[in-house]
């Protein structure tokens, strides 16, 4: 091989560096540290302290591990008192940055006009304050329009019936061959006698399909009515099992056997549309209904008596321990006490029998063995011994060990030789005591530091008699356990200035080593006080001393194997762990092992379990392209199995290959149970799995590579014995296997619990709290996680401060998505932008449709496809939305599969999303938010779906508190409890995926390109030591203030400024360069972290608009079917107008087509268009809205809308049409279109705004500051010699060009802190527009002659002030807003030059 596989996995080498740092750590120490930190994570303990006896390498390992878990690690103390403390984060870890917000003049006018007409009433103000007294809970059946019997997804009512006799089918012979068939009588009789039965059968035994039929057949024989519910963990499994059981009984689905799931099933008519069908196939004759755990839970929310007509409930696959199944088992255990006719059957492939036997009161257990052949197990030490695997680091370590062994041999020989003489040289006890007394050593071993103030003599320079005496004392202590020899030893160290770390001349043994080896504790303390180096002690004693000193019992943390290792295996493992990082997958070892398998056997498929996508892709490329030992690719057939990889491998992998071809399967844990490949003979088990867990303390999802459980290891082993004897290679030691968890961590312990807590309020008795109810689960979740979930539900207004459900909470419980997404959808209904949010919410709930490419070389192409869908919106959510809409268009044109392949999309995921949309929309109709016709119908709730700023408002309302602040100075992102956050590689905002630059430079480029300082995100993940955010969208600060936080806030949420100043600072100035005191600013405090500073008058306007929004939301939530009032309409219109204006001011794009099915971009167009330019092909929806009849707030923006024709004297070839609008600040906003004309010129009639612009002196020309939102526009201008500005600035420039000899434009990119040069305006403004600009809001194009194309930092011109702009610095302006006076413009140009 040209390069090690591990190096290919991480080309940067950073992981390799960390691996080298961890090589010197014993495996037992790693296991003990991991166990300690895992216990800290699951306990109420706030910190753990590690002892002072750690080496520097071990400290680095613990620091890195603690950071990866989101803890704060810090070393305290010095010397022997230096301890390592690990603590959990409490409160915000980031410093409070100055969170400013400014409003455009137009936005202020709109808000003022609206509040003058509809001020905040006392009732609205009161209902938005935090309650001090507990209100009676909202009744379930009355008062809020919610019917308990209308719970979404309930199982249909029915009555037990005697089943019909099954008919003979072609499946009968297959059924009789299943292992479970031999236990039919045992199962039936046990179910008769017991109310709860536990059936454990290996995968493939037939328990899922046969147990319901056994019960049906028995009830038919005895003439007993029966009705069963059978749960499956996944929807597809419920459908597939129902169809299989119905086929085995010779029926069709919907007769005796049926299914019901929450997601609607569909049929596809290629050229027409999707036709939604019912989400169930049941009938009055249905006796066995297969469903998901969620459907049965929702049935139980209507009351336990809903199961009064059910005779049996079968809960299958409970070994997966998903959260819903655990919650279902808890509720079923309580239901059994109230429904005496109900029987419960639990079925599993591999289960913690004792846990569930105890949980259900000593229920009987039936064991069913599967059909499998013998599988031989080989662990890491066996692999190293049998294959002879050695790498360079192992060989180097072996040489070092041989050197140490040689020293130990010399010590043994020397001790044997010196035994007699050392006893003769021993001093008498009285003499030893005298010497010790002369040394003036205190009893506790503490020695004054002044003794060692002078430099110690070099060991090599010691006189021969000193070397002989020190060697004699060390050997006497070690060999004869002579404690009196320490007296002479201390005398030589203190009087003769011999180093306390003196090493024996032949054995390198130090005094501390021999004292520790013989257990002389007092002398150990004295040596440590003299400064003995603790890192030089024996490694065999080091592990136990760490744990004992720190009061950690290693025997309880690290379990040893039942049989002792042989010396050879022990040495091999030591060499391997010192040369490789056993916390990562050793792909080089896998390649070596795979080659040995291919050389020693002729056939048999090889299944390799890997933790994730990166390892799969690297190993696949290495087999096919890099490793010369596998150069004959025709001999191998490589398959990849990963949930997010688009591939046909999942079907092809089940087929047997042609003779002479070896099948190699690279898979994640999905192949443990979900997929069974019968011809697998060899399994290579990396022992790793990429597991997602939730850190409730930091609100971060952790994606970590962790060791699997013993049960998973046995499951992986069992994959090799389906059709023939097999071999399983475990790439971990027996010691590691014995210290693995017995079973996987239940999902209930590692996921956010907001949705389950919401369900709990409907499942638990009235007087039972959420923590109390969840504590009765088979394995109760951590109290901290439950508290965090309840707090999050309070933050989104689903619960009040007494943990009672609010009106919003009851509606969220009805929706089939998690609470925050449910709130997003309901806010979208109120904001009337439902359709885009439906798509985004369903995509986030199910999983994004983008798939990972099977080849590493296609990664960049996949990310470019994703970015092309963003339409320059700086939004991952826009990519999800437009990808779905483009797929819908491709479906109508009949080329959806090709479209998915070219754009790396999953057809199955997109089909699932469209089904979820249909179901979610149906539920919104059922609870009254969407009406069939009239006000509130589907057209009405989509009036603002084309306005992306309004859609983002709904996103903020649902995503909160997932908010990120951009720190442009340090080039990083900051969150509530994270000081430094990065973009996830899959985010379109991450620059590293599209440019070949380093990750650090990519992060800086990504930060600099953002138009705003605020982002929302879907999920924050922590991998290794860094946190990253995915699913990001750039938003304005006003959107965060208006739609973030709770509806009800305390009285102090709006804080008036402590100091009032007469001179107000303009909101519209460039905040990058303004330096002024913030004492005069008011503050709006959203939560513990979000606190915004803004002028008092602006703060009052924003806060009252926020109150009006939440009053509107609460009214619509309380009565969704009630007609809209004029106040409601005006509130929404004001919000839409303000949001649109602020988005435009921030330079954010307004893509069109988001509220409807867009025209897809063809592959030919995609190759020509830049990913950020696709939005320029569509007209602005904001401009289109102006063509309609304006609403009252919009009239404020559109005063004086009639155009005025201006004809300028002396310019016979031009005519200018000016349309004036209300100004942004003191100036007027004008739009200008230049047209060609024939004929003579006429007189010019200028409006007041034009006269104002032309009144400036022109003897030295006119100079304007031109601001651009991005660097791309500057580059286009320099290349093509053109420029385009907003319609607001066209009038200024046109007037200046007509009356002045020269118009100079000084260019600057917003946020760059630089001037990019200057040029001369050389033509008037034309009607055409440039399609390449990064904004669709620009006007016509005019020519520019660039004079200077160099960057100039602002600090070179900070001494220049502009008297025409309140004496502010010349760089403080908006695009074309400020003109420079004659005495300043020359100096500015000179500075730029």
What do these coordinates show?
- It is an enzyme of class 3 (hydrolase).
- GO terms for molecular function: ATP binding; hydrolase activity; RNA binding; RNA helicase activity.
- The protein has 1393 residues and is an alpha/beta fold.
- It has six domains: 257 residues, P-loop containing nucleotide triphosphate hydrolases (Rossmann fold, 3-Layer(aba) Sandwich); 219 residues, 3-Layer(aba) Sandwich (Rossmann fold), CATH 3.40.50.300; 134 residues, no CATH class; 45 residues, no CATH class; 403 residues, no CATH class; 190 residues, ph1033 like domains (ph1033 like fold, Roll).
- It is built from 50 helices and 42 strands.
- Strands 10-7-11-6-12-13-5-14 form an eight-stranded mixed sheet, sandwiched between helices.
């Amino acid at each position: 091989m040209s390069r090690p596989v591990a190096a290919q996995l991480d080309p940067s080498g950073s992981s390799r560096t960390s691996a080298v740092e961890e090589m010197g750590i014993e495996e037992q120490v790693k296991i003990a540290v991991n166990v300690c930190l895992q216990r800290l994570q699951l306990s109420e303990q706030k910190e753990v302290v590690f002892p002072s006896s750690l080496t520097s390498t071990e400290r680095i390992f613990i620091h890195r591990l603690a950071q990866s878990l989101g803890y704060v690690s810090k070393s305290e103390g010095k010397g022997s008192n230096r301890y390592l403390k690990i603590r959990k984060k409490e409160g915000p870890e980031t410093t409070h940055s100055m969170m400013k917000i400014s409003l455009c003049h137009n936005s202020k006018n709109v808000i003022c006009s609206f509040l003058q007409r509809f001020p905040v009433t006392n009732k609205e103000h009161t209902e938005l304050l935090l309650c001090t007294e507990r209100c009676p809970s909202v009744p379930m059946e009355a008062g809020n329009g919610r019917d308990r019997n209308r719970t979404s997804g309930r199982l249909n009512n029915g009555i037990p019936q005697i089943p019909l006799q099954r008919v003979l089918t072609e499946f009968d012979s297959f059924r009789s061959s299943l292992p479970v068939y031999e236990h039919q009588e045992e199962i039936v009789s046990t179910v008769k006698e017991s109310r709860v039965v536990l059936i454990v059968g290996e995968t493939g035994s037939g328990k899922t399909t046969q147990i319901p039929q056994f019960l049906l057949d028995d009830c038919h024989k005895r003439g007993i009515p029966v009705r069963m519910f059978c749960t499956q963990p996944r929807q597809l499994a419920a459908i597939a099992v129902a169809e299989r059981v119905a086929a085995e009984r010779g029926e069709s689905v919907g007769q005796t056997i049926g299914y019901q799931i929450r997601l609607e099933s569909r049929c596809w008519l290629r050229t027409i549309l999707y036709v939604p069908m019912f989400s169930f196939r049941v009938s009055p004759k249905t006796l066995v209904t297969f469903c998901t755990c969620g459907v049965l839970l929702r049935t139980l929310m209507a009351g336990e008596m809903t199961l009064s007509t059910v005779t049996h409930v079968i809960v299958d696959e409970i070994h997966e321990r998903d959260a819903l199944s655990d919650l279902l088992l808890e509720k079923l255990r309580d239901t059994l006490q109230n429904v005496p006719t109900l029987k419960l059957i639990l079925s599993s492939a591999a289960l913690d029998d004792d846990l569930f036997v105890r949980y259900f009161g000593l229920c009987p257990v039936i064991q069913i063995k599967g059909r499998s052949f013998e599988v031989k197990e080989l662990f890491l030490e066996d692999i190293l011994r049998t294959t002879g695997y050695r790498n360079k680091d192992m060989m180097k370590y072996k040489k070092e060990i041989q050197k140490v062994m040689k020293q130990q041999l010399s010590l043994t020989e020397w001790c044997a030789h010196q035994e007699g003489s050392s006893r003769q040289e021993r001093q008498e006890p009285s003499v030893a005591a005298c010497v010790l007394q002369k040394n003036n050593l205190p009893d506790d071993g503490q020695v004054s530091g002044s003794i060692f103030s002078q430099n110690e003599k070099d060991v090599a320079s010691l006189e021969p008699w000193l070397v002989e005496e020190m060697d004699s004392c060390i050997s006497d202590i070690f060999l004869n356990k002579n404690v009196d020899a320490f007296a002479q030893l201390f005398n030589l160290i203190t009087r003769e200035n011999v180093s306390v770390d003196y090493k024996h001349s032949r054995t390198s043994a130090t005094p501390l080593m021999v004292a520790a080896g013989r257990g002389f504790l007092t002398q150990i303390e004295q040596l440590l006080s003299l400064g003995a180096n603790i890192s030089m002690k024996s490694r065999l004693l080091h592990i136990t001393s760490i744990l004992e000193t720190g009061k950690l019992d290693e025997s309880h943390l690290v379990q040893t194997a039942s049989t002792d290792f042989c010396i050879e295996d022990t040495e091999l493992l030591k060499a391997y762990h010192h040369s490789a990082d056993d916390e990562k997958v050793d792909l080089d070892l896998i390649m070596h092992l795979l080659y040995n398998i291919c050389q020693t056997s002729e056939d048999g498929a090889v299944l390799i379990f890997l933790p994730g996508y990166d390892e799969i892709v690297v190993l696949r490329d290495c087999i096919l392209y890099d490793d010369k030992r596998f150069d004959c690719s025709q001999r191998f057939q490589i398959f990849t199995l990963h949930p997010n990889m688009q591939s046909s491998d999942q079907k092809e992998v089940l087929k047997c290959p042609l003779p002479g071809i070896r099948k190699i399967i690279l898979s994640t844990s999905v192949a443990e149970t979900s997929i069974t490949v019968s011809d697998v003979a060899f399994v290579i088990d990396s022992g790793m799995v990429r597991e997602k867990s939730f850190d409730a303390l930091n609100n971060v999802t952790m994606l970590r590579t962790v060791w699997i459980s013993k049960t998973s290891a046995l499951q992986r082993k069992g994959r090799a014995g389906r059709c023939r004897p097999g071999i399983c290679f475990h790439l971990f030691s027996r010691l590691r296997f014995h210290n693995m968890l017995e079973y996987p961590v239940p999902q209930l312990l590692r996921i956010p619990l907001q949705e389950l807590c919401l369900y709990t309020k409907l499942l638990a008795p009235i007087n039972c709290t959420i923590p109390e109810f969840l504590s009765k689960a088979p394995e109760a979740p951590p109290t901290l996680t439950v508290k965090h979930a309840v707090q999050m539900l309070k933050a989104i207004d689903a619960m009040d401060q007494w943990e009672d459900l609010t009106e919003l909470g009851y509606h969220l419980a009805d929706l089939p998505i998690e609470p925050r997404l449910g709130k997003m959808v309901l806010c979208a209904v109120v904001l009337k932008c439902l359709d885009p949010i439906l798509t985004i919410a369903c995509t986030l709930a199910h999983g994004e449709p983008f798939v990972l490419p099977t080849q590493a070389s296609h990664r960049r192409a996949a990310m470019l496809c994703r970015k092309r869908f963003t339409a320059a919106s700086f939004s991952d959510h826009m990519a999800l939305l437009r990808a779905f809409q483009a797929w819908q268009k491709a479906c109508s044109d009949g080329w959806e599969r090709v479209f998915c392949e070219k754009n790396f999309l999953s057809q199955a995921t997109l089909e699932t999303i469209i089904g979820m949309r249909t179901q979610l929309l149906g539920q919104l109709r059922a609870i009254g938010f969407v009406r069939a016709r009239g006000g509130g119908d589907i057209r009405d709730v989509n009036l603002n779906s084309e306005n992306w700023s309004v859609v983002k408002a709904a996103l903020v309302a649902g995503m909160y508190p997932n908010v990120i602040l951009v720190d442009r100075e340090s080039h990083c992102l900051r969150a509530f409890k994270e000081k430094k956050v990065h973009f996830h590689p899959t985010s379109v905002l991450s620059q590293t995926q599209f440019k070949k630059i380093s990750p650090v430079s990519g992060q800086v480029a990504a930060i600099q390109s953002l138009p705003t300082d605020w982002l929302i995100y879907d999920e924050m993940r922590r991998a290794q030591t860094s946190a990253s955010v995915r699913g990001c969208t750039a938003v304005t600060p006003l959107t965060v203030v208006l739609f973030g936080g709770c509806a009800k806030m305390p009285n102090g949420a709006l804080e008036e400024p402590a100091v009032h100043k007469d001179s107000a600072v303009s909101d519209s100035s460039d905040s990058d360069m303004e330096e002024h005191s913030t004492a005069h600013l008011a503050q709006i405090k959203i939560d513990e972290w979000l606190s915004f500073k803004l002028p008092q008058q602006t703060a009052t306007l924003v806060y009252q608009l926020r109150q009006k929004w939440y009053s509107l939301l609460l009214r619509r939530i309380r009565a969704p079917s009630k007609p809209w009032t004029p106040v409601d309409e005006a509130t929404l219109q004001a919000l839409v107008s303000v949001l649109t204006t602020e988005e435009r001011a921030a330079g954010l794009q307004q893509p069109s087509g988001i509220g409807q099915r867009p025209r897809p971009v063809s592959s030919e167009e995609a190759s020509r268009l830049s990913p950020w330019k696709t939005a320029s092909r569509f007209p602005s929806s904001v401009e289109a809205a102006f063509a309609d009849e304006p609403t009252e707030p919009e009239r404020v923006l559109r005063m004086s809308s009639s155009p005025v024709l201006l004809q300028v004297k002396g310019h016979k070839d031009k005519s200018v049409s000016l349309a004036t609008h209300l100004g942004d600040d003191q100036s007027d906003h004008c739009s200008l279109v230049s047209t060609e004309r024939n004929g003579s010129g006429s007189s010019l009639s200028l409006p007041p705004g034009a006269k104002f612009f032309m009144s400036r002196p022109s003897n030295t020309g006119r100079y304007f500051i031109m601001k651009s939102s991005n660097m791309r526009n500057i580059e286009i201008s320099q290349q093509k010699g053109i420029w385009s500005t907003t319609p607001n600035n066209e009038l200024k420039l046109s007037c200046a060009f007509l009356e002045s000899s020269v118009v100079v434009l000084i260019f600057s990119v917003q946020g760059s802190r630089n001037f990019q040069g200057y040029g001369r305006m050389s033509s008037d403004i034309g009607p055409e527009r440039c399609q390449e600009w990064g904004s669709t809001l620009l006007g016509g194009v005019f020519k520019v002659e660039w004079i200077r194309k160099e960057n100039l930092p602002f600090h070179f011109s900070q001494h220049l002030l502009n008297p025409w702009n309140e004496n502010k610095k010349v760089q403080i302006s908006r695009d074309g807003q400020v003109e420079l006076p004659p005495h300043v413009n020359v100096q500015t140009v000179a500075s730029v030059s």
